[in-house]
């Protein structure tokens, strides 16, 4: 009996020896940080957005990994136009942001690069990156919003942040150009209980929109546009509002996602 | 004793390494057994057919091709036809199991047959040999078209790839979308040429089966080529790794491609029509008899010998079964679940036989919209539906109608206030959808005038009416706290086993599923005809295109008990919408509409006005990328003992769907992209 136990132990020790059961998995945890901001090249102000797939998308490709790398999972800028990723592996990355601004990576119809303003950087420790872009629109509040009977009435001014000629100069070589790209299509008023108000966090009961067809908005650039919330917001509540506007141009091209340029959020007390 | 152990150990070590078993295994079946005789071929075909991506009772859009009948329901994937309480009721933006690797296995089976059957050509008479080869082409065409509808351009694996081999030989990049559809066309054409005109055995394909699926596929291809152009950003792009146009069509080729595909769709459908092998099911149909017309359309789905059936997937208890009745029957037949398929009011509004408001929505009050006037009262709930199109009644169980010999009681609540009754809500908009009956003062006040039930059985609220106790909700609900009752006020009838003696249960259903029927061929011909006329093309076969379309629509309408067209269909957008709307109606709850709204490109916000085939204001049911559907809720009023109906957004288990332009092409499975140096992800993702 003793012999048998011995044999079994002997044989099973072979099994144990073959696997790295007691080895430490010592690959460093991803701990590098990438912090970035997206600013308007003309004014130096950050490009405001919404944290969701309709906002500014950040795409990282770890080029130091090897050939045929698949992009890291996309993430999105915070509403103030900054982004941060604190769990990255050390290495060289291509960083690209897509949002309501002239695309950084511009290619013609056959895929020949025209311009590449994406950044290739080594990420180690805390790496900071700053993208200077040309947003399509600028959206601002004109005056403090007024509240009556549970409805918020706000005045918004929308101006072009990139001139029509410059837009055309940069977008037309990408092919399939249409003059309708520059048409302003809609102004949104997002209302929410949350301070991170935006398209994602909007309350569908109260958020509203004004749509413009064709180039009908062209004469209204720079004018104060009045927009009113839907429904009745219960009294005694504090809500946050943001205005947003977009043109008839999707980024990245082909995604069909037309991203909004946003105003600052403001807090509104509903009496 | 010790020696014995040692000896045994040594022998066991040696024996594993020394014997060279180079003998053909007798228990493995090879080509000589399978590809040389009819019964062997049957085994081979059975394997292919059991892996075909057919969308029947065992297909769920949310899950993909998993051959699983669990939670079986129809039309719940954001098509607006029906709703379901569970997470499976979301827009068709992807499948849990992407149809990719499974497709490759089946393609290999088909390619293997194409390459190896010619070695055994002598074993069969010529027509039989051709038929078997045709089956392989049919399978390949079907698989490529199933993939193309999902992904656009796919790797065109048209040969058996042997492993191991050079990476060169193993890696097949995605072809362009146009090449992919051309391959689908070529394979269908091969199949049509080779297959016998009648199936040599039940369940086998034949020439007309291939033609019918060809017309369906070509209609898809033509529509995509044309309607990609209507999407903001022209839905097309080049793959990053290969530079191939993996989705969409080039600016200078989409027009010619779309016309070519529409012409193929038209010709294929016309060939079936002219063969006169099939006809619309009218065995019990009687002119001007609504009851007979309704019963006729119920029977057509349970009659295996229907002349309308072109291709059918059969089931047989107890060896091959599904569970549709166990999940989608009315609540009183719960076994073990129920109410999986609850049609919407928006769907019902496609049909004739109801009074309407000026904006086209169904009239439930005396005013000009459902916030105005007082509710119209009906003696019984079924009175509301007395003029409804017979086809609708065959597809949908109305409140108070009969099913399996039983009255289907559906009641949202009981109203005890005074008549006439003002609309319960003052806002019925999308934005107000989350304010429900249980939030109303009429329900919450004390004493209250509106009684509702959170659940069935002892949780029912009870009202005393004429000395008897009446439950607030009907026996089938809706219950505001139980999504297993009726959700919308309506139930699906199509596909349910109507036999009163049938006892439903999981894996107890064996009714067949009609994968392709003649009505679709007529609709394919009509749509392709209108699209060709819209493009200014001459008729491919000399027949008057508008006449073909008009005849097809009228034949279908006549059988359905709907009113006939007053004149010929015109070659414009109105004419096209007549055809589209008829398709939305006729082919509802058959796993078809989700592909139709996808190829028409009417699911994203900018195009959603055309969601229903006809024009409907998208803002009435959507908010940017999201959209919702409505129900029709019957209430009992105690003062007169009559019923009234309230039309509002889904009251129980409210579903909000979301669709973006990128969803028109599903993402390629991430693993396939990362492991291959040539497989491209969709360029717009």
UniProtKB/TrEMBL annotation, chain A:
Keyword check for Signal: yes
PROSITE patterns for the chain: PROKAR_LIPOPROTEIN
Gene3D superfamilies (UniProt xref): 2.60.40.2060, Carboxypeptidase-like, regulatory domain
UniProt keyword annotations, A-Z: Signal
Signal peptide: 1-17
Protein name: DUF3823 domain-containing protein
Organism: Parapedobacter composti
Source lineage: Bacteria, Pseudomonadati, Bacteroidota, Sphingobacteriia, Sphingobacteriales
TrEMBL record, chain B:
Domain of life: Bacteria
Residue stretches making up the SusD-like N-terminal domain: 78-201
Stretches assigned to the RagB/SusD domain: 340-683
Full protein name: Starch-binding associating with outer membrane
Subcellular location: Cell outer membrane
Keywords, comma-separated and alphabetical: Cell outer membrane, Membrane, Signal
Any Pfam family matching the protein: SusD-like_3
């Amino acid at each position: 009996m003793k012999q048998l136990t011995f044999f079994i132990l002997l044989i099973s020790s072979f099994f144990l020896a073959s696997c790295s059961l007691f080895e430490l998995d010592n690959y460093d945890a991803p701990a590098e940080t990438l912090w970035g901001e997206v600013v308007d090249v003309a004014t130096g102000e950050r490009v405001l957005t919404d944290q969701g797939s309709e906002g500014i998308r950040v795409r990282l490709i770890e080029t130091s990994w090897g050939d045929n790398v698949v992009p890291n999972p996309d993430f999105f800028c915070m509403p103030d136009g900054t982004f941060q990723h604190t769990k990255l592996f050390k290495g060289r990355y291509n960083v690209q942001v897509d949002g309501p601004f002239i695309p950084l990576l511009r290619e013609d119809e056959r895929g020949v690069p025209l311009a590449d303003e994406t950044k290739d950087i080594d990420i180690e420790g805390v790496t900071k990156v700053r993208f200077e872009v040309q947003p399509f629109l600028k959206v601002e509040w004109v005056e403090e919003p007024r509240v009556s009977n549970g409805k918020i009435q706000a005045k918004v001014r929308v101006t072009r942040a990139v001139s029509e000629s410059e837009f055309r100069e940069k977008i037309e070589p990408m092919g399939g150009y249409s003059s309708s790209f520059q048409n302003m299509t809609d102004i949104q008023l997002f209302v929410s209980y949350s301070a991170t108000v935006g398209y994602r966090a909007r309350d569908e009961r109260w958020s509203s929109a004004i749509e413009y067809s064709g180039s009908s908005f062209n004469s209204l650039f720079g004018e104060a546009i009045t927009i009113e919330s839907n429904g009745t917001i219960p009294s005694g509540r504090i809500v946050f509002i943001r205005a947003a506007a977009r043109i008839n141009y999707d980024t990245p091209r082909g995604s069909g996602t037309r991203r909004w340029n946003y105003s600052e959020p403001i807090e509104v007390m509903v009496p | 004793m010790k020696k014995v152990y040692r000896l045994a150990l040594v022998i066991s070590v040696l024996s594993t390494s020394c014997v060279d078993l180079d003998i053909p295994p007798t228990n493995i079946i090879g080509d000589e057994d399978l590809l040389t005789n009819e019964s062997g071929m049957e085994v081979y075909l059975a394997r292919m057919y059991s892996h075909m991506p057919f969308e029947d009772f065992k297909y769920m859009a949310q899950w993909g091709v998993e051959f699983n009948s669990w939670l079986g329901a129809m039309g719940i994937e954001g098509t607006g036809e029906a709703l379901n309480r569970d997470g499976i009721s979301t827009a068709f933006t992807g499948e849990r199991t992407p149809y990719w690797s499974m497709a490759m296995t089946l393609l290999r089976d088909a390619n293997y047959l194409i390459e190896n059957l010619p070695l055994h050509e002598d074993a069969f008479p010529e027509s039989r040999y051709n038929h078997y080869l045709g089956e392989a082409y049919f399978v390949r065409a079907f698989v490529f078209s199933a993939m193309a509808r999902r992904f656009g351009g796919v790797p065109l694996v048209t040969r058996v790839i042997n492993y191991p081999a050079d990476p060169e030989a193993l890696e097949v990049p995605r072809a362009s979308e146009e090449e992919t559809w051309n391959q689908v066309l070529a394979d269908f054409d091969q199949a049509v040429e080779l297959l016998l005109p009648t199936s040599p055995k039940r369940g086998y394909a034949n020439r007309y089966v291939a033609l019918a699926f060809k017309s369906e596929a070509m209609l898809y291809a033509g529509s995509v080529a044309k309607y990609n152009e209507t999407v903001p950003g022209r839905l097309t792009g080049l793959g990053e790794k290969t530079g191939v146009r993996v989705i969409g069509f080039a600016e200078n080729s989409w027009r010619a491609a779309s016309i070519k595909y529409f012409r193929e769709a038209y010709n294929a459908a016309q060939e079936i029509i002219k063969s006169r092998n099939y006809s619309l099911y009218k065995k019990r149909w009687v002119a001007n008899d609504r009851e007979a017309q309704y019963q006729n359309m119920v029977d057509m789905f349970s009659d295996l010998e229907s002349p309308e059936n072109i291709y059918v997937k059969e089931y047989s208890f107890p060896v091959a079964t599904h569970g549709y009745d166990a999940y989608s029957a009315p609540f009183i037949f719960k076994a073990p679940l129920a109410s999986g398929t609850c049609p919407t009011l928006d769907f019902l509004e496609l049909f004739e036989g109801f009074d309407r408001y000026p904006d086209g929505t169904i009239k439930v009050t005396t005013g000009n919209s459902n916030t105005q006037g007082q509710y119209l009262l009906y003696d019984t709930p079924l009175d509301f539906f007395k003029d409804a199109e017979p086809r609708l009644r065959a597809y949908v169980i109305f409140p108070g109608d009969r099913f399996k010999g039983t009255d289907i009681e559906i009641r949202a609540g009981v109203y005890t206030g005074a008549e006439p009754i003002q609309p319960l809500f003052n806002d019925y908009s999308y934005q107000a959808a989350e304010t429900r009956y249980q939030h109303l003062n009429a329900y919450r006040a004390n004493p209250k005038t509106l009684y509702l039930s959170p659940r069935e059985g002892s949780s029912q609220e009870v009202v005393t009416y004429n000395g008897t106790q009446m439950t607030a909700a009907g026996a089938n609900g809706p219950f505001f706290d139980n999504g297993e009752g009726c959700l919308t006020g309506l139930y699906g009838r199509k596909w349910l086993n109507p036999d009163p003696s049938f006892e439903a249960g999981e894996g107890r259903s064996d009714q067949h599923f009609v994968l392709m029927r003649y009505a679709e061929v007529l609709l394919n011909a009509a749509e392709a005809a209108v699209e060709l006329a819209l493009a200014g093309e001459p008729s491919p076969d000399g027949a008057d295109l508008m006449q073909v379309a008009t005849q097809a629509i009228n034949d279908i309408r006549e059988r359905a008990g709907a009113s006939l067209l007053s004149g010929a269909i015109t070659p414009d957008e109105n004419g096209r919408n007549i055809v589209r709307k008829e398709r939305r109606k006729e082919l509802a709850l058959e796993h078809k509409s989700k592909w139709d709204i996808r190829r028409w490109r009417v699911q994203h916000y900018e195009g959603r006005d055309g969601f229903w085939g006809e024009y409907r204001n998208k803002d009435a049911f959507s908010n940017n990328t999201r959209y919702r559907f409505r129900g029709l809720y019957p209430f009992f009023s105690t003062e007169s003992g009559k019923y009234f109906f309230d039309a509002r957004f889904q009251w129980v288990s409210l579903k909000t769907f979301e669709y973006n332009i990128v969803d028109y092409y599903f993402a390629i499975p991430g693993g396939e992209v990362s492991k291959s140096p040539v497989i491209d992800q969709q360029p717009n993702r």
